[in-house]
Amino acid sequence: MMIDLGPFSEEKFDPKKWINAACQAKHPQDSMDKHLAELEMKLQVISEEISSSLDELSASALLRIPRASRDVVRLRDDAISLRSAISGILQKLEKAEGSSAESIAALAKVDIVKQRMEAAYETLQDAAGLTQLSASVEDVFASGDLPRAAETLANMRHCLSVVGEVAEFANVRKQLEVLEDRLEGMVQPRLSDALSHRKVDAVHDLWDILIRIGRFKSIELNYIKIHLKPIRNLWEGFEVRKGSDMLVTEKHVGEKNVSSFSSWLPSFFDEVLLYLEQEWKWCMVPFPDDYKTLVPKLLIEIMSTLSASFVTRINIATGEAVAETRTLATGVLDILSGDTSKGTKLQTKHFESLIELHNMTGAFARNVQHLFSACDLQVLVNVLKAVYSPYDTFKQRYGQMERAILSSEIARIDLRGAVSRGVGAQGIELSETVRRMEESIPQVVVFLEAAVERCISFTGGSEAEELLRTIDDIMLQYLSTLQETLKSLRSICGVDNLSHGDGVGQKDMGPERKESMHNSRILDMVSDEEEWSIVQGALQILTVADCLSSRSSVFEASLRATLARFSTSFSLSIFGTSLDQSHKADTETPGNRELVGRAALDVAALRLTDAPEKARRIFNLFEQSKDPRFHALPLSSQRVSAFSEAVNELVYDVLISKVRQRLSDVAKLPVWSSVEETVSHKMPSFSAYPQAYVTSVGEYLLTLPQQLEPLAEGISNSESNADESQFFATEWMFKVAEGATALYIEQLRGIQYITDRGAQQLSADIEYLSNVLSALSMPVAPFLSTFHTCLLTQRDQLRDLVKSDGGNQLDLPTARLLCKMRRVSLD
Q1: Taking the model in full, what pTM does it have?
Q2: What are the TM regions of this chain, as residue ranges (predicted)?
C-alpha cells in the first residue's frame, strides 16, 4: 500500500479524516487490525527515513555556513567600491551637462538668425522678381505665348504670397487679378473650340494653363456649357416630335400617333447614357486626374437644368394614363392641388404611371452607377440624387396621393346599410347586407397590400411612416362604415335597445325610435321560419368579425415583416447611431457615408441622406417594430376589437330576443295568484304541465345548436379547426342559455304573490326548463333549484324546511324571497 504524504503538509490537515480514509481504502478481505498495523508500521518507517534525511541535510548545511559568510563579506566590500566609482562619474556628467546646455542655446540663437536672414534674402529676391515680372508681363502677353503667360502669372501669385500684405505691392495684386481674367478670356474661346472639335492635345494644354492660374471652376463651367447644349436639344426634341405627331393625327382622324412621354423617356435615357459613356472615355485622355469628377458634374448639371421641365412632363404623363385627365391635360399634381374640374379624382392608374416612370429612371440610375463605379463615393451619391431629383416633388406628397387613391377605392365598395323591408323580407335583407360586408374585407386588404407595394416601388420605404399613417386612417374610415352598417342591422333585427312601454308618447318619439318600434312590431308578426332566418343571418355576422380579425392580424404581421425588410436594406442601425452621437443634421457623418456605401443605389437611403431627422424617426420605427407587442396600425387594431365586440353584442341580442319576448310578462301572469275553485265533490289531483311560454323558450334553446352547427363548420373550414368550431358553438350555446336563465330569474324575482296552485304550476315550469338546461349540459342555477324545492314543499311545511336546511342545499336569500311570495313568516 502506497502512502501519499501530500495531505500531511496541508494547513487544515485532520488526522481523524485521514485515518478514516485510509481505513476505507483497505482490501475487503483484510482484517481491520492487520490493515491498521501495516499502516502504523509504514508510517513509522517513513518517519525514520525523513528524520535520517533531515540529519544529513542539517550537517551538510552547517559545513557550508562559514564559506557563505566569507562570500557575503566580499560582496559587501565590492558594492562599497562600486558606489564610490559611480558617484565620481555622476559628478563629471553634471559638469559636462552644464557647459553643453550653454553651447546648444548659443547655437540655437545663431540658427534662428540664419533662418531669418535666409527668409529676408528670399523675400527680397521675390520682391525684386515680382517687380521685374510686373514690368515684363505685358511683353509676355504681347508675344502670344499663353503657357509662358500662365507661368508668369503663377510666379507673380507665388511672389505676392511670400511678400504678404505690403502696401507697395497692392497695385500689383489688382494688376494680377486683371491679368488672370485677361488670360482666361484669351484661353476660353480656344478651349471651347478644342473641346467642340475633340482636340485632345490642345484641350490638355489649355486646361493646364487655366489650372496654373487657379481657374478650375471656369474650366468646369466651360466644359458643362458646351456639352449641355446637345442634351438640351435632345430633351426639347420630344416637344417637336409630339407636335409633328399631333399634326399627323389631325390629318388622319381616328389614328392615335401622339408619342407619350413614358414611351419616349427610355430612348432619351439611352441617348444620354451613350453620350456620357463617350465623354467618359474621351475625358480620360486629356483630363486623367479630373475626369472622375468632371463627367459626373455634367450629369448633375443636366438634371438640374431639366428638373422643372422634367417634373412638368412627369405630371402630364401621369394624367395621360386616364382618359378623363388626358383630355384635360392635367396630372397628379394638378389633381392634388384641386386645379382640375370638379369631380376629377386620383386613380390607381395615375400612380402606376408615376411608378413606371420612376422605374425607368431607376434603370438609368443603375447604368450610371455602373459607368461611374470608379468615382468617389460621395460623387456617386450626388449624381444618383440628381437623377432621382425630379421625383422628390411627388414623394413629398406621397401620403396625400396614397390617401386619395385608397379613399376612392374604399368609396367604391358596396357597403350600403340595411333598409327596412316588409314582413318576410327581413332575413333576405339581413343576409344580403352581411354578404356585402364579408366580401368587402378581402377587397380592402387587397387595396392595402397594393398600397404597400406602391410604397416599396416608388419610395423604397423612405415613406414608411406616412404609409402606416395613411393605412391606419383608411382602415378607420372603412371600419366606421362597417359600424354604421352594423347599426342598421340592429334596426332590421329589432334589437336596437329601444324600450316600448316607457311612457313616451308617439308624438315625442324621434324617427329612429318610431322605426325601431315599427321593426319590433314586424318581428312580432313574422313566422317561425322567418324568425329563424333572421337568427341565421345574425349568426353570419360572426363570420364577418372573424374574417376581419384574422385578415387584419395577418396584414399587420406582413407590415411588420415589411418594416424588418426595410430595416435590413437601409442598414439604418449604423445610420441612426451616427446621428444619435452627433445630434447634427450633417450628411457627411461617417455613419452616413457607410450607409450609402452599403446601399448606394437604394432610392430610400439616398433620400434619407438629406433628411437625418426623418431617418432617425424611421430608425426608431424599425426598432419598435421588433417588439412583439408593436401594432403597425394602433388605431385600427383598437377599432377592430371594438367592432368584434359590437358584433358579439348584436348576435347575442338577436339570439336572446325571442327568449326576452317570451319571458317579458312572466312575473305578471295571473296563474301565480290563482286559487283552486271550491267544489262539492272531491276531484282527483293532476300533475301540472309546463306553460307555453317556457316550452317555447325550451324548444328554442334545444333548436339553437342546429343553427350554430353550420356556422361553426363555416368558420373552421378544416378538420384541424374542428375542436375550435365545437368550442365556438358550445360557447355561444352556453352564453344564450345563461342569458335565458338570467332573464327567467329576473322575472321570477318580480312575482309578488304566489298561491299553492301557482306554486304547483311554477314548479312544473322550472322543472321543464331545468331539464332543458341539463340536456344542453348546462348547470342549473342554485336560484332555480331552490325555487323548485320550495315550490314543491307544502306551504305549512316551508318554514320548517328553510329553518332545518340552514343553507346546506338551499340558497337562503332565494328561500326567504319565496317565503315572502307565499306569505310564510320565518319569525
Answers
A1: 0.69
A2: none
